[in-house]
Amino acid sequence: MLSPLSLFLLSFLILLHPTLARPNDPPTVCIIGSGIGGSSVAHFLRRYSSGPFSIQIFERNGVVGGRMATVNVSGDIFEAGASVLHPKNFYALNYTQSLGLKFKTPSSSSSNSLSLGIWDGKKFAFKTLLVRSDLPFVDKIVSLANSLLMFLRYGFSLLRMETFVETTVDRFLKYYGSLESRPLFETVDGMLQWAGLYNLTTRTLQEELVDARLSPLLIQELVTVITRINYGQSVFINGLAGAVSLAGSGGGLWAVEGGNWQMAAGLINRSDAALHLHEKIESISYLGDYYELNSTLGNSYTCDVVVVATPLDESNIQFTPQISIPKRKLQHTHATFVRGLLNPGYFGLDAVSEIPELVGTIEDPDLPFSSISVLKQHGEKDMTYKIFSRKRMANVLLDSIFSVRQVTIRINWGAYPHYNAPEVFASFILDGRHLYYVNAFENAASTMETSAVAAENIARLIISRFFNQLPLTSANMSSDSGEQILHLDL
Ligand SMILES: Cc1cc2nc3c(=O)[nH]c(=O)nc-3n(C[C@H](O)[C@H](O)[C@H](O)COP(=O)(O)OP(=O)(O)OC[C@H]3O[C@@H](n4cnc5c(N)ncnc54)[C@H](O)[C@@H]3O)c2cc1C
C-alpha cells in the first residue's frame, strides 16, 4: 500500500508529466481529415509499422472522402469533385485493386472520347467531329479523323506537348521506387528537387511550354481549356500543376465505380482506425510532450503525433504555440449539375445535337463558365450536365444557357490552391516535433495521387522520427500487410 506521501508525489509527477497518466497506453496518432491524404497516412502507417499504436481520424463531415464526393442528380450518382485518375496513379490503382473495388471509364473526362468544342464567347473556335455510333469501327474512324483535325490546327506542337507531359510523369514515377531507394523528405522543396520536379514549380506553365516550343495557338486554346477544366485557372499556374493537368486529359483515364471516395473508406476500415465523423477539430495545442486536440463537440483528445490532412488555407484551427506557414489562396470552383437540355441558340446553333459534348473555354473574363460537359444522355432531349465556373452560376444565366432545366445542384468547392510561380511551400513538419502537414504538397499539384504520395512520405517520417523504426520493406512485411506496387494496363 502506498503511503500518503508517495501518493502525493505520484499525483504531483502525473501533473508535471501528463503522459505518465497513460503509461501503458500505446501511442496515439491523430489525423485531421478523412480524404485520400488522411486515409493514406493511416494506411501506410499500418503497412510500414508492426508496432502497437492507435489511429484516430477526425472528420468534420458525416462522410469520408473529402473532395472525393459524389452527387445524386435525380437518382443518378456522379463524381462531384475528384473524378478521374491517370493510368500511372499507382497508389490509387493499388488501393482500388486491393480493396476489391471496380475500375470504370469515367462518364465525363476531357479525353478524346467526347466531342470537344472550344468556345470563345461568340463562336466555337475549334470543334471535333461529333458522330455517335454503336459500331466500334465508326468510332475508331471518327477518333482518327479528330486526331487529324487536331494535327491540322496545332501541328507538331501537339507532339511537343506530349513529350513535356511524359517527361514530367516519368520523373514523378521515382516516388514509387523501392523504400530503400527513396530518402525521407522533411520539406516539399526537397521532395520535388529529388525527383527533378522542383524547377517546374518556380515557373509558369506558359513559360515552360514556350520553352518547349509549343505554338501560341495551342497554348491559348487547347492547353488553356485543359487548365481551366482541371484547375479553374489559366496557363499562369505553375509548370508542374500544368503538366499534371495536361496528363489528366490524356487517354486511359479511370475512376472507381460507385465513387472514388470508397478508396478512403476502404483504407480507413483496413487500418483499424477509430473514425470520428461530424467532429471538427478546433484547436491543436502542444502541452509538453503530447498534443491536445479540442473539437466542436467539446471533446479533448491526447495525441502523441498529429497529422493535418486538409488544406489550412481556409481552416480556422487554432495552434498553440502558433505555427507559421506561407500564405496560400484556394481557388474556388463552382460545380453546377443540371438535368435538362442546353439551348443551342446560346451557342448560335440550330440544334442541340450540334453542341459538342465537352464545351471548353479560352481565357476571357467575360466568359461565365470554364466548361460544360455531358455526364449522361437519358434521351434525345434529356441530359445531365456538369458545369465548372469560377463564380456561382445565377439562375438567369442558367436560363439563358439551358432551354430546359429540371434539376439544378450547386457545389462551391474550396477546390485546390490558386497556383503561383514560384511556389513557396510550407514544411511537412509544422513545429519541428510531431505535427505533420500532408497538404503542404498541394501547391506543387493537387490530385488524389499527389495527396497519397505526400501521405506515404509523412507515414515514413512518423515511423522514423517518432517510432525510431525503419519502415517494413516488402522483404520483411507479412503477406497480408498490403499490396505491392502494381502496374496495370487498363
Ligand atoms: C471540383 C474538383 C475536381 C477535381 N478533379 C480531380 C480529378 O479529376 N482527379 C484528381 O486526382 N484530383 C482532382 N481534384 C483534386 C482532389 O480532389 C484533391 O487533390 C484530393 O482529393 C485532396 O485530398 P485530401 O485528402 O488531401 O484533402 P480533402 O479531400 O479536402 O480532405 C480533407 C478532409 O478534412 C476534413 N476537414 C477539414 N477541416 C477539418 C477539421 N478542422 N476537423 C475535421 N475534419 C476536417 C474535410 O471535411 C475533408 O473531408 C479535384 C478537386 C475538385 C474540388
UniProtKB/TrEMBL annotation:
Its cofactor is FAD. It comes from the Eukaryota. The keyword Oxidoreductase applies. Gene3D superfamilies: 1.10.405.20, FAD/NAD(P)-binding domain (3.50.50.60). Residues 1-21 form the signal peptide. GO terms for biological process: prenylated protein catabolic process; prenylcysteine catabolic process. InterPro entries: FAD/NAD-bd_sf, Prenylcys_lyase, Prenylcysteine_Oxase1. Residues 138-469 form the Prenylcysteine lyase domain. One of its GO terms (molecular function) is prenylcysteine oxidase activity. Keywords: FAD, Flavoprotein, Glycoprotein, Oxidoreductase, Signal. Belongs to the prenylcysteine oxidase family. This is Prenylcysteine lyase domain-containing protein.
